[in-house]
Amino acid sequence: MEPPVVAALVTSSVTSVVAAVAAGVSLYSVRSSRRTAIDLARRSAQDTAYAEFTAECRTFVIRVGPACEACALLDKNSRRTGPGRFGDHYDQRRIEELRAVIRPLLDFDEVQRTASVVQLAGPHHLSERAGAIVQQAIELTGLLRSAGSPYTSWEGITSQADVERRLDEYRWDDCTRDEDGRLVVDQYRSYAARAELKRAVDEFTEAARSYLDDFT
What we know:
Blueprint: H1 3-63, H2 65-81, H3 92-102, H4 109-121, H5 124-145, H6 160-169, E1 176-177, E2 183-184, H7 189-215
Antiparallel strand pairs: 1-2
Helix pairs in contact: 1-4, 1-7, 2-3, 2-7, 4-5, 5-7
């Protein structure tokens, strides 16, 4: 083969290799840019999900403040008058007034809705925290609904397991015994549960901020 032909073939091969390498680099760059764009969009969606969730949680914590106050008054009244009945401390009208304060403040649908978005957005450790906060909100609203009546009807209680279930439902772990040995509710239980919820929301906020900071 003539030298000029060989030179032309070598030049052509080198050009092809260079072109192939360049094309490969371009393809890699496109893929890398695409992944970066997807990651940025995902982080932006997570940022929005976390912000909306914490905002709804804080709104709920603030909103149930008056309900906790009413619950404390009803629980205090229950302590003075014994299990399952109300004495002279509050008449029935006052009791209903306090329960009327509580009822409209128990809605936490937006907390649940935004928590479900966080659970979809991830990551796992933040999803778990969001789920735990929803559970605490459920417990708090259940506690508020039972305000002033920790000694609920014992109808249907036929075994020790039933007793333990009923105690758990009404947070009897927050109760003490009076001078007659009867369980009495802690009148500040609603404040304690609300403080626990607020602490959990604060901890979620810090964990979410740390996660997002690690990305940047």
